[in-house]
Amino acid sequence: MTEDDVDGHDGEVPGVGVAVRDTAHDRVGRVMGHEGPYLQVRPLCGGREWDAEPCHVRTLSQDELLSALLAEVNARSRRSRTTK
User: Fold this and answer.
1) What b/e string do you get for 53-71 counting C-beta neighbours within 10 Å, with b at 16 or more?
2) I want to staple 24 with a disulfide (CB 3.0 to 4.6 A). Which of 28, 29, 56, 83 is the partner?
3) Is 26 exposed, middle or buried (CB count within 10 Å of its CB: 0-12, 13-18, 19+)?
4) 11 DSSP 8-state letter
5) Which residues contact 58 (CB under 8 A, 6 or more apart)?
6) 38 Cβ neighbours under 8 A, 6+ residues apart
7) Segment 48-57, tens digit of pLDDT
8) Which residues share a beta bridge with 28?
9) pLDDT tens digits for range 6-51
């Protein structure tokens, strides 16, 4: 088993707009662009971009994307309740 197998990386660099998991940072987001050897990834519901190495990024399945979006909505709901 190679490191790519562990990370779930299939050798292809995801395109702009693709939802991905950065296994090195344990974060999910959308690819916003490519800069040098890195991908710029932004959290699914907005926020500050981070650089991700393509070898540590894998495309999310539809189920994983839905789960990540739901988790973000739930977290936002909890934050808004505590700030009232």
Assistant:
1) ebebbbbbeeeebeebeee
2) 56
3) exposed
4) S
5) 7, 8, 9, 10, 20, 21, 23
6) 51, 52, 53, 54
7) 999 999 999 9
8) 21
9) 445 566 899 999 999 999 999 999 999 999 999 999 999 889 999 9
